[in-house]
Amino acid sequence: xxxxxxxxxxxLSILLLCSxxxxxxxxxxxxxxxxxxxxxxxxxxxxAVLVMKGDKIVFEDYENGHTADRPWNLASGTKSxxxxxxxxxxxxxxxxxxxEKVSDTITEWRSDPRKSKVTxxxxxxxxxxxxxxxxxxxxxxxxxxxxxxEYDPGTYFEYGPVPFQIFGELMTRKLKAKNETVIGYLKRRxxxxxxxxxxxxxxxxxxxxxxxxxxxxxxxxxxxGLLLKNGGKWNGKQIVAKKLLDxxxxxxxxxxxxxxxxxxxxxxxxxxxxxxxxxxxxxxxxGIATGVKDLYMAAxxxxxxxxxxxxxxxxxVRQGQxxxxxxxxFIRRLVTGTK
Length: 339
Description:
Elements: H1 2-27, H2 30-43, E1 46-53, E2 56-62, E3 72-73, H3 80-91, H4 120-124, H5 141-145, H6 162-175, H7 182-191, E4 200-201, E5 203-204, E6 207-208, E7 214-216, H8 218-229, E8 233-234, E9 237-238, H9 242-247, E10 263-264, H10 278-286, E11 296-300, E12 304-309, E13 314-320, H11 327-336
Antiparallel strand pairs: 1-2, 1-13, 3-7, 4-7, 5-6, 8-9, 10-11, 11-12, 12-13
Helix pairs in contact: 2-11, 3-7
């Protein structure tokens, strides 16, 4: 009998503890939750945390000497511009669809038994089977298209810069008849209509680096996230068709955690590639964070982040310097107010 009483007391104490923790979380204001997330970012050498709800910025915090008007390199956060550019090119009928073969445009691939079968979807979901190259070492467009296919298309996920430079060459050829550059098309079609100003964009051989070249302030980067969260609409005008943008957040069989240029909140695979960072590996294997299934993001080295959370009507920018950083803890603090 005594054991039953002891057990009952134990259960009651656990319930009271859980109730107390829930009550503490429930009493936190939205601003306090955002401050908790910013505190964690700051401790991890963070530079900026910006939160937009609806179409308004509701929280900003600039840390470790950073300021609102200082642009910062997005690193691989740049990659996601290619996905949206591809969607726009499909809408403009420059590309017939995500499953168009790259060799339809890069015709020298037609004689290669593997490269001839690669689709644009596979290219930008990093499942083309082509040597993806070493992270941070970006070839020219010409060098990129000469890389060997090591695996059959669609069977293998490999993270690296080469596929995005190949896409740059594909778009260069698509736009040649219009006498328009890749960056010119991106600005005209997407960036200028949403008022997004790029501070600078690194180039190689006069060509924009599509895997990692963009430098933006947090206030500019969040505009890109807002366009995505709103399904391609900007001030009531449809900039890119929602059904095409929806394709960007569908994972591949080879890696369900990565869509077309965006990381998804699904468990996936241990990514292959040259010099893969721990953060990329963890995200790919475990997803981004619990409790917000529809969360997806553009992500770059040193934990540059553009989080899009449609169910919470929220876009979050985090910019920082190289340090240990856990997306799950940052999102948990931001959403629930718990450490």
